[in-house]
Design brief:
globular; six-stranded mixed sheet; two-stranded antiparallel sheet; 10 strands; alpha+beta; 308 residues; 9 helices
Length: 308
């Protein structure tokens, strides 16, 4: 980890397009990159910029607690490059992550000028190849604890009713008991941690690459398959043909495993809790959160969920 000239204290810069401009300039200067003309692509949990001078993406984390995750993501990325695995890359000459103004800044090679997602079949190919790799101990990957992750995600849900909070916590407790009884059948090992169609992009040279590598962990491999299965089976976000191709190319149909429903319920609860943190910021998020909680209560209407 490298500290920028602002050092450890928080500069107090607001996490807005205007407030982050000085921080972006300072981070780029520290990395010896030109921030002139940088384009803000997204402003959410992270501020994401595309540099004009070079095919580089700058990511500024909202929360200082992201430091350990981003250190791991950079190390994972560099290791995957040694394995010639198709994933996002980091500029070789930049020492990172940086801490500038109390925020964590990382630099990534741009995959292409305009976002184009890969296919479900390509996701299956990437996961199958990833799951064959044996990670080095030097990566110090954490164990994925879904119950702890759910508990943490249910904290600080401002803007939701006490009734909804209690319902979600009780659902988490019940699912935790079910999860402890699961008998996994795929080998335990390295997972991406958020493996969905939204995390593979088409590279400018045509091949698909895996992105957002900060969730890498050690866990049953079933976790990397569950989102594609439930996106098809519960929400209709993938077609039957797409899902059949995913199963064929990966070589395992998670929906035939007895633990699928419990795993899907837990992942679904993570999705709902994440959305619950957005309700005070976004009217669309508030509407979707209400729809999803109502669906969990009634076990109906999952086909009406919208991607978010």
């Amino acid at each position: 980890m490298i500290s920028g000239s602002s050092g450890e204290p928080d500069s107090g810069a607001e996490f807005t397009a205007e407030g982050l401009k000085p921080l972006l300039r300072e981070a780029c200067a520290t990395a010896e990159l030109d921030a002139h003309g940088a384009e803000l692509l997204r402003l959410g949990s992270n501020a994401v910029y595309r540099l004009e001078s070079l095919p580089v993406i700058v990511r500024i984390a909202r929360d200082r607690s992201a430091l350990a995750e981003m250190e791991r993501a950079v190390n994972v990325t560099r290791w995957l490059e040694t394995q010639d695995f198709p994933a996002m890359r980091v500029p070789a000459e930049v020492a990172q992550p940086l801490v500038v103004g109390g925020r964590v800044v990382t630099f990534w090679e741009s995959v292409q000028e305009h976002e184009e997602y890969g296919t479900v079949g390509e996701l299956a190919d990437l996961l199958r190849r990833l799951h064959w790799l044996e990670e080095p101990e030097s990566l110090r990957l954490p164990y994925f604890d879904p119950l702890a992750k759910v508990a943490a995600s249910l904290e600080g849900l401002e803007g939701i009713s006490g009734e909804d909070q209690t319902f979600l916590e009780e659902r988490a407790a019940s699912l935790g008991k079910d999860y402890d009884r699961l008998d996994f059948v795929l080998p335990f090992g390295m997972i991406h941690g958020d493996a969905s169609i939204g995390n593979i992009l088409r590279h400018r040279d045509g091949h698909a690459v895996l992105i957002d590598l900060d969730g890498f962990a050690l866990a049953p491999r079933e976790w990397d398959l569950v989102q594609t299965s439930m996106f098809y089976e519960r929400y209709g976000w993938h077609t039957q043909a797409e899902y059949a191709e995913f199963v064929h190319r990966y070589g395992f149909d998670l929906m035939n495993w007895p633990g699928y429903e419990t795993l899907a319920d837990l992942r679904e609860l993570m999705m709902v809790a994440w959305l619950g943190h957005q309700v005070t910021k976004n009217d669309r998020a508030a509407t979707e959160f209400a729809r999803r909680v109502r669906s969990l209560r009634t076990a109906e209407g999952r086909g009406e969920w919208g991607p978010f």
